[in-house]
Amino acid sequence: MSVPVGRQRRPLALPPGAASIHCILFLRYVARLPARVDARMDYGSRQAGTDTERRVLAALRGEQPDRVPVLSYFNPYVENWYTHVPSYAGVLSASERYADVVCNWNAPAPLMFTGGHRWIEQRDLGRGQTEQIIHTPDGPITEVVRTGLRAREVVKRWIETVQDAERAMSIPYVPIKPDLETFFAVRNRLAGRAVAQAAFRGPNALVDWIHPQSLAKWCTEDGSLIHQLLDMLFERIGQELQTCLEAGVGPIFALSRSRLTGVEPDVADEFADRFVDYDRHLVERVHQYEGRMVTLRAVGKLAPILDGLATIGMDGLTLTEPPVGGDYNLAHVKERIGDRVCLIAAFSYEELARGSTAHVERLVHNALAAGAEGGGFILSPCPEAVERDLPEQTSSNLVHFLETANQAGRYPIKA
Questions:
Q1: Which of 95, 263, 360, 376 could disulfide-pair with 342, CB 3.0 to 4.6 Å?
Q2: Are the beta carbons of 202 and 260 closer than 8 angstroms?
């Protein structure tokens, strides 16, 4: 409730004995109001003297904030499927108290990045499998998925043949116009307590739509089809990104890549160079807007393309499941490109789920020792939940990681 400037409130005249009741009701009312920004810096953020967004953005600029940001994608401030699952209560509480919460919004990424297929026909195949059918102008294409206890598993991908690829390309292109009203409402409500991030898939999302054997064959024998598909997706992703930028989405844009597997090393290198070019243009587009920053999540072997990645101009590089493929370590990456890119050390769910308390502490301290010096460093444990019911040991480990990182990551870092 707001009061217009210049309007004066008259004091309430309360009957005897009513003061305490009205006080309680008032406090309950205030507790439901959106907190002011300077009142939101509670828990670990208030103790640090800065809010989550400022801390994270400072690290992405290569600066040294009050402590190493510790990202948590378990958002305790908004409704999600895990909000009312009892086994997640401890992690949500720890995220609120110790972590820098990421308010993540996934930009729509339908097949071929077009809104042209307004609906998808579905057929129940039994045994938890569902066939999804898109009727394109050139004929139907299908995907089969299985819903399990942990996650959605793709049994059959949309594109297996050249004919499937041609049918996918025949889907009319309708620019994606995402509904951003909820994004802005949540971002404004959580200012100070969370940092807003818009996650976009890159052109090589194509990798997840094509059968691996078909992809390897087309990349090796004749790359023209793949190049045609990638160029088409790049243009469409750029259009969706532009729409969001013009609307004021941000401050962080997270680009992600899919892993290109099953192809010869020289072919993989060729496409890796092409992906770098795509990423560079997307990053440049984001940086045209003041205050917008870009991170890239890299997967697969990085050593051959590490310097190329650093030239993209991104603000942060997320290193997933270190060491990926055993071809680098965090200290080496920090030495090679840490002066140009903020490094985001991500730890997979599997890495944190079953280890001992001592193992979790080693992960934190080893990562801080390798990457925290001089700033430009972020920790990101377990970016997503993969189990509907969180085992007690896993919950304990995640809580311990967040608490340990919050305390041990305060600058100056103690050896």
A1: 376
A2: no
Q: Are 123 and 113 in contact (CB under 8 A)?
A: no
C-alpha distances in Å from residue 396, one per residue of 17, 183, 340: 47, 31, 35
The position carrying tokens 């940001």 is 69
Bridge partners for 124 per DSSP? 130
Which 3 state secondary structure label does DSSP give 123? strand
| Cβ–Cβ < 8 Å for 275, 309 | no
- Share in percent of the chain as helix, strand, coil (round to 5): 45, 20, 40
DSSP 268-288: HHHHHHHHHHHHHHHHHHHHT
- Structurally, what CATH architecture does the domain formed by 53-112+172-408 represent? Alpha-Beta Barrel (3.20)
Tokens standing for residue 10: 């008259």
Q: What is the pLDDT of residues 347-375, one digit of tens each?
A: 888 888 888 999 999 999 999 999 999 99
Report phi then psi at 328, rounded to 5: -160, 165
pLDDT of the residue at 195: 97
Percent of the chain with pLDDT over 70: 80
Q: List the structure tokens of 187.
A: 């971002």
| Widest pairwise Cα distance in the chain | 89
pTM score, whole prediction:
0.83
Number of H-type helices and E-type strands within the chain: 14, 12
